[in-house]
Design brief:
The protein contains 3 helices and 4 strands; from the N terminus they run H-H-E-E-E-E-H. By secondary structure, it is an alpha+beta fold. Strands 1-2-3-4 form a 4-stranded antiparallel beta sheet.
């Protein structure tokens, strides 16, 4: 799978691909969302779950330049 092909899929297709092919990495809280990070082949995907509405609002290829990277980096613990 390549990023461009994944990005062109519908939300339902993306979620199905993540369910069967994605590797869960971690979750963060970001404003009103629980953002779930998955690895697919050589890129990362973020799933934005709005907990008060109880629905997935967005599924996007992660932009590594986004400020959310700090939240992910803060949770990574490397072995001593």
């Amino acid at each position: 799978m390549i990023k461009e092909k994944f990005s062109s899929m519908t939300k339902d297709q993306k979620l199905r691909w993540i369910y069967f092919q994605g590797e869960h990495i971690m979750d963060i809280r970001y404003y009103q969302y629980k953002v779930i990070l998955y690895a697919i082949d050589n890129f990362f995907v973020e799933v934005f779950y709005h907990h008060t509405k109880g629905l997935i609002e967005r599924v996007e290829v992660m932009d590594r330049q986004n400020s959310r990277m700090k939240f992910y980096a803060d949770q990574i613990r490397l072995p001593q």
